[in-house]
Amino acid sequence: MEDLEGELGAMREYHDGGNTRDASWRRAQLRGLLLLLLENQAEIFSALQQDLGKHPAEAYRDEIGSAVKSINYALHHLKGWMSNKKAKLPAVALLTTAAIIPEPLGLVLIISSWNFPIGLSIESLIGVISAGNSVVLKPSELAPTCSSFLARKMPLYLDTKAVRVIEGGPAIGEQLLLQRWDKIFFTGSTRVGRIVMTAAAKHLTPVTLELGGKCPAIVDTLSSSWDKKAAVERILGAKFSACAGQACIGIDYILVEQKFCSALVELMRVNLKTMFGENPKQSRSIARIVNRHHFQRLKSLLDDPKIRGSVVHGGFMDEDDLFIEPTILVDPPLESAIMEDEIFGPLLPIITLNKIEDSIRFLKSRPKPLSIYAFTKDESLQRRILSETSSGSVVFNDALIQYLADALPFGGVGGSGIGKYHGKFSFDEFSHQKAVAWRSFLVDFWFRFPPWNGYKLQLFQNFYEYDYIGIVLTVLGIGKQRAIHLS
Amino acid sequence: MNGVYCNSLEGFRPISGGGRRLIFRCPFTDKSKLPLLPAPASCPTISLCLCSASTSAVHPVMADNKDVFDTREASLLVRELRSIFKSGRTKSYDWRISQLKGIERMMEEREKDIVEALHLDLSRPELESIIAEISGLKSASKKAMKELKKWMMSEKVKTSMTTYPSSAEIVPEPLGVVLIISTWNYPFLLSLDPVIGAIAAGNTVVLKPSEVAPATSSLLAKLLDEYLDNSAIRVIEGAVPEATALLEQKWDKILYTGSARVGRIVMAAAARHLTPVILELGGKCPAIVDSNVKLEVCARRIIAGKWAANCGQACISIDYIITTKIFASKLIDALKQALEESFGENPMESKDMSRIVNLFHFKRLVGLLDEDQVTDKIVLGGQRDEKLLKIAPTVLLDVPEDSQIMQEEIFGPLLPILTVETLEESFELINSRQKPLAAYLFTNDEQMKKKFVQNVYAGGMAINDAIIHVTVPGLPFGGVGESGMGAYHGKFSFDAFSHKKGVLYRGFEGDSSLRYPPYTQKKQTLMKALLNGNIIGIILALIKWYGK
């Protein structure tokens, strides 16, 4: 690490040499990423199996497949993203053209997280590379197999002078944060997010913080059995089958009307059995808790007898296997840790309300989550949720899939994060939008320059108000003249 | 290194470096009473010194001996505004329009007061005030009113096969309670321009104008109270203690205009509450001048971009010029002539140029000129008058790179000209320094223009002119690197104070069990095809799947 500064210096020099600016370089790197994923699928599956017990199908859906889709999307749109955007000008700005030109920021640091160690690393890299930056990726040390996979394999597919992987834990992270970056992209907890932003302030480095929060799912009293089944499948899928609830956009808890609660729980029981069988521990379809520390944390959430008493399904745990059974709780006390902290695990509290509309007040009194999910066909409720609550994103009648929508910005607001990415938003997040105006020497409004007088003053007023007739009148000397107040 | 200067005006001494605006502690502020920002362990700067007060005009509010606005009051203020925000009243289109109209009306009706305040604070010529501040604000509020409906509309976006069937839109929503800390050089424009954006986006706002332009600060407090909804839009006047109290609160966005040094403090304070920031800082904005230009026009535009812009006290004014060795003397002659045309034989007597804001800045600028290795480089101007706080337009030729004038942002009427053998060298010269807020090029060489735009890093650029790029409503205004982060103006202001909420609508139909466990090999194949948008793959997989 002593020569970290030297290494970064070399990277900066390489970047300043313009090596990463060409579209061809960016394309080559994106293709490299694609090959990295496609040629090493088996190894990625086994790394994710080892670090998190993820089933290959889940691994493909959440990490490889979604990243491949995003790379293809970036390759397809890169040219459009890189092109200048002409800015409109008023007619008085004769012989001037203006455009917004995206330029790379420089050297970017990505600090990635352990829950989707491949998917989230690649997704952010796509934006960084598309925008023509150089980058250091620090994968999470809590998913060590995936981290070492990235460190070993990425250099084989990407330009090592501009894309580097540095492995390590908090000490390395701290060292990296001391350096000067042109952008820091961080995925992780709110606590570390604050540390990252504070460190970034020293070098005036802009940050993108992808944090989390408690994402609620409002479940309306659905009537048709088809709707109920679809909603329950989607809820369970979004809770238990995405890294066993260890996902920043996973459903944290459910809000439901009292009268619909027991029917909902019953339906969940049935569907859980279909998904994970009689003995979920034997099922290969559910991921494991990442490590003992988190296992203990989750276990302690349930330790309180009051909480224990609210468990209506599941609750089985096996520390040696780091397995926690999909667990459903009804009405745990609101001032308990499980309802105050982000759960990040396969525990699903259900909070009952008198009326589903009460959910809006409930959410307004809490920090802004990364996502709000609402399963309802009631359009007026949909509208109220949209306009009265605030969250990174809102999804109606489904969960998690907003992650796959390239045309939507992905990112939080308030406590759930700063900045946004995915698709074009990634490109923009890692670019500076340079404003450029071109002028010719031919035409000049002589009234732009001192010495000043009332005549020039009038012309300026016409000019700013785009009052073309006024300009002509003033120039001809028949417009109203202004008096100068001072001097 | 420029930076922080302490207490007494006679014996100001630099404490630390970085940044453009002059910072020194108000003489009447007791240091021991300063509430300290809990600075992060790694951040060397502890106390927040935002700006100075001039000796000539003591801040009216401070002079009133009012109760100090402390942390407790700040937190009450934020709580109050937050409850107003939560009531939803600032979200409505009507409220936003009524406030924007208020600003427009204020600019129409109180033009005279504004011009006077700016004259008091900066001896700003009336016309300059009208061009640079009042007209700019009028057109900004007009544009916002005209386009607000469009800006507020949610944007439908296409969804892909992956999430089929669904529809999606991006809904802009207000962030909540925002803090705008403004500065003294264009005290009206730089206060109200961001306020327009914050209002248009439906937020509640606290504005802290700069105490260094006291007349404008108190006028802003008065006018905003009179013309705008003061339950949602507030002005807090004051200096360091007030700013510190404000920065301790949780905001939903902070926009700060000022120095890079204070920008760091603002961002570190914001980090504690995870508040996103827009920092509008400065930097040394270069102008490259080629020998093939129409000299007369070029010189006039340089004057407009330097001395006619608040006497060089503007964050996007030209800081220094780079030209070829051979061409320098011609350029100087042209500048000399154009300066005479603009400001007369004796520029010290001209009423067409602003003065230096206060004695402190005056002394700083004189200090730059009086440095040993710099004094003999003056080729034009150099006169100064401490009583009037005036410095003549001054041009310097080939000052050494390590002189103070080439180290810090000049922010005044001094213009160094650096010479190079070939102009291509200038790109490297600019890129070897911190990224400036703006970079300018005067040339008729198309190739050169292209290279400049492509290779020089800067917040914004104008070719064959200076400053005017910020008047283009379709362009974002903002820095990069040391010159700031985030951008505003026009629609960009609206976006800067909005959250873009991604919204996805799904029905309950069109679901396939392949998304859910138990996972099988078949599901994996189908998923692969689906995520790749490969229609044939999907069909094949489906046939195979159902075939089994």
Automatic annotation (TrEMBL), chain A:
A single GO cellular-component term on record:
cytoplasm
The Aldehyde dehydrogenase domain is annotated at: 19-436
| Protein's UniProt keywords contain NAD | yes
InterPro entries, from UniProt?
Ald_DH/histidinol_DH, Ald_DH_C, Ald_DH_N, Aldehyde_DH_dom, Aldehyde_DH_NAD(P)
Q: Name one GO molecular function term.
A: aldehyde dehydrogenase (NAD+) activity
Query: What domain of life does the UniProt record list for this protein's source?
Result: Eukaryota
Task: List, in alphabetical order, the GO biological process terms annotated in this UniProt record.
Answer: aldehyde metabolic process; response to abscisic acid; response to water deprivation
- Which keywords has UniProt assigned to this entry? NAD, Oxidoreductase
Which Pfam families does the protein's record reference? Aldedh
Which residues carry out catalysis?
Answer: E210, C248
- Catalytic activity, as annotated: an aldehyde + NAD(+) + H2O = a carboxylate + NADH + 2 H(+)
Q: Which family does it belong to?
A: Belongs to the aldehyde dehydrogenase family.
PANTHER family this protein is in? ALDEHYDE DEHYDROGENASE
Provide the protein name.
Answer: Aldehyde dehydrogenase
TrEMBL record, chain B:
The record ties this protein, via InterPro entries, to: Ald_DH/histidinol_DH (IPR016161), Ald_DH_C (IPR016163), Ald_DH_N (IPR016162), Aldehyde_DH_dom (IPR015590), Aldehyde_DH_NAD(P) (IPR012394)
Keyword vocabulary terms for this entry: NAD, Oxidoreductase
Annotated GO biological processes are: aldehyde metabolic process; response to abscisic acid; response to water deprivation
Residues forming the catalytic site: E280, C315
Q: Which domain of life is it from?
A: Eukaryota
GO cellular component terms listed in the entry, alphabetical order: cytoplasm
UniProt KW Oxidoreductase keyword: yes
* Catalytic activity, as annotated: an aldehyde + NAD(+) + H2O = a carboxylate + NADH + 2 H(+)
User: What positions does the domain Aldehyde dehydrogenase occupy?
Assistant: 79-501
Q: Which Pfam families match?
A: Aldedh (PF00171)
Gene3D superfamilies in UniProt = Aldehyde Dehydrogenase, Chain A, domain 1 (3.40.605.10), Aldehyde Dehydrogenase, Chain A, domain 2 (3.40.309.10)
A GO MF term: aldehyde dehydrogenase (NAD+) activity
Keyword Oxidoreductase attached: yes
Q: Which family does it belong to?
A: Belongs to the aldehyde dehydrogenase family.
* Protein name per its UniProtKB record: Aldehyde dehydrogenase
